[in-house]
């Protein structure tokens, strides 16, 4: 029995040496037809805080040696090296090693500062046949970001006889959020007009935070005889004005509410907009749902200007774009450019909100054409539209303003795709 194990250990030792030197014997062939799925999950953390991603595989792989290379953006997240006596391994692998008395993990983090970590594993006695967790990767949040990718490349994945085992890959990602005391909060409307007895909803828009944080908001009305508020629902009581204040910790946002004794005649304002397109510059102004940008040319949007024009309503519009290498820029308003000029940076996502005393009378819908996705569904009133974590450009956009409660211009289920 001992005579059979020793040659196998010797063979696997040579194989691992080959793995970490970057080559394997040329006669290694792929003998397994069904690919083994290698998956990295998704995590969320804060700046200067840690999160752990799990690297797992399908059962029945019969793998005795492997090498994975993980790549990531070191300006967004930082790899945390485990202690020698507590290697980042999954429980399944720990148990397997204890039961079989063999197996070891080697971590090469020399290039971690540049966004690359290499992890290898060898078990000279018996192949891995279990499924589930192989090992874990720990990262520290460096800069707020949505879905920064953690990609895995399988350099080697071989059986005890030196045969290559096919794989499929699911990459992971990490979202890093700012601490709550660094968050900025905004209301989806800064002005609201309503009739007596009418209800309208206010919501908090958090910078880099979940909408679930609306549950933490405390609401107040400066004059509850004019307008009352409960859980963001504002009700007109009598004609007049009142200020609605939303508080989260020491952060506040306000909305001026005007309660009218009679209805304001409904008439759609006109939304006009134009985009700055790669290689083409500023396009002509478009209105109310006409596409601005290009189709079939693979050209990125680099900037946008938007206006809400109305003679009968107190209505404005604000918008912010998510720009390559910059992130969310902050809100611009009424025709001021959002994006960049002369930097060749793509727009990746956008948010729009209506402002003014009559903002509650209308909804703003917007739809973007994203690289590799085509036209996404419609977003409205501060929702994200576009993509995150893919590095995909926006190529065109449509915008329309409609009376509150009117049907959406189209489907609204998938306006934002996040990796």
Characterise the protein shown here.
- It is a single chain.
- The protein is mainly β.
- The protein folds into three domains: 2-177, Sandwich (Immunoglobulin-like), CATH 2.60.40; 182-260, Immunoglobulin-like (Sandwich), CATH 2.60.40; 270-418, no CATH class.
- Helices cover 7% and strands 47% of the residues.
- A six-stranded mixed β-sheet has the order 2-11-9-4-7-6. Strands 26, 27, 28, 30, 34 and 36 form a six-stranded mixed β-sheet that branches. A five-stranded mixed β-sheet has the order 5-8-3-1-10, with helices on one face.
- The model is unreliable at 1-31, 85-92 and 96-101 (pLDDT under 50).
Keywords:
mainly beta; 3 domains; 2 helices; single chain; elongated; Immunoglobulin-like; about 425 residues
Explain briefly what this protein structure is.
The chain is mostly beta strands. It has 2 helices and 36 strands.
Strand ordering within the main sheet: 2-11-9-4-7-6
What number of structural domains do the residues give?
A: 3
> How many β-strand stretches?
36
Instruction: From the alpha carbons, calculate the radius of gyration and give it in angstroms.
Output: 28 Å
* Fraction of helical residues: under 10%
Mean pLDDT: 83
Structural class: mainly beta
Level-2 CATH architecture of the largest domain: Sandwich
Oligomer: single chain
The dominant shape is elongated
Largest β sheet strand count, sense and barrel closure: 6 strands, mixed
